Amino acid sequence: MSTGKGPWLLVVDIGVPLALYYGLKALGASDLTALLAGVVPGLISSAVSLARTRRTDLLGMAVVVSMVASAVVAVLGGDARLLLVRNAWISLPFAGITLWSLRHPQPMTYVVTRAMFAPRAALMDELWETDARFRHAWKWITVWWGIATIVDGVVRIVVSYTLPISVVPATDPVITVATIVALQVPTIVLLRRSGSWHRVFGPRRPYSRVGD
């Protein structure tokens, strides 16, 4: 469920929309027109990512659907702020799905991380089966991810409807980075406490079964 995008994400998905918005505003475009133009680079990068990886990316598709839906709603309603909250449309459902996954044998954070680190999948599966501390850590990581993404969505909504429209786009990267950091901290702390961080994410070694 990774986005499949590399370092260009920062340029194409964050830098270019900001440049388009403030550039078009300087040329006299309306907030809605400038924000709509900023959606285009994200759609292009998602299409390129899909063509390059040749597989369906659930998170990436959710982002595309959010961008398209928010653009349509904003145009029909004539309200630029509906475009500003589009990322909350991803954060809040993602938070709900994340917390709901605690009802399943393996929580979503574990499943997603396992998929992203495929070379470590066998080791992670072995730890999941044999190490109760490892399983406990991932369940609490999932709780914190759910809480963090709820906060992310609420903050985006509040910011989008309280600050001047021209200020909100500049806050989006700040919120994004803050959320990413907030997600990493409990992951690292809890896995270190479980004693499995270095074994899973340290320098790669030939895989051997736990206890060998």
Automatic annotation (TrEMBL):
UniProt keyword terms in alphabetical order: Membrane, Transmembrane, Transmembrane helix
Protein name listed in UniProt: Intracellular septation protein A
Transmembrane segments: 7-24, 30-51, 58-77, 83-102, 143-162, 174-191
Coiled coil: none
